[in-house]
Amino acid sequence: MVSVRPMQDRDLDAVVALHREVLDMEFLSRFGPRFLRSYYRAWISTPGAVALVALEDGVVVGGLLGASDPGRHVRAMVRDYGVTLALRQVGAALSDPRLARDLVATRAVRYARGLARLVASRWRQPANVVPSGPVIGEITHVLVAPRSQGRGVGRALVEGALAAIRATGVRRVELVTPPDLAARHFYERLGWRLTGEMASRSGEPFLRFVYDLDA
Q1: Residue range of the domain that includes 39
Q2: How high is the mean pLDDT of the chain?
Q3: CATH code at 45?
């Protein structure tokens, strides 16, 4: 039987191993387990995080990352953990020339601009400023161990995340996923609506889905 609960520090080794198993092709995975552990710890320690694990017989078989207010969550994560994460990335890139080239080509300018905007915003406006327009929640990662697929693990994680985001008053959630048929049909069965295609800065194709919590 599948149970879902908030992700905790004691889950990080299992979740990182699962991330590397399920998303070995993802850019973040290329920085190695040390970076991923820091990334997950930063995520779950930042206000606004939605981070869940799924368990079968007490064993972690799934994980999910998201945020009820992605903009605020990312800004706080960069402010509080950005230096640590950047150092982890640089350390991994120094031992992998190909990773270093890809990091510079696809992320360096964006990271620099993001940090500059963050620093500028801290001088120009109060930390608790409320952004204009409706807040849209986000699910960024859904991980299910291959041995546990087809047992309702993914459904339990996504439904748990939607419940957590709904409780904050947010009325819409977005996610992106690789364009394989299994993922597309999975989200459509859960009531998500496909709204378009996109490509990451690394060139990977993705599908964008939305879920209206008032529906």
Answers
A1: 2-212
A2: 86
A3: 3.40.630.30
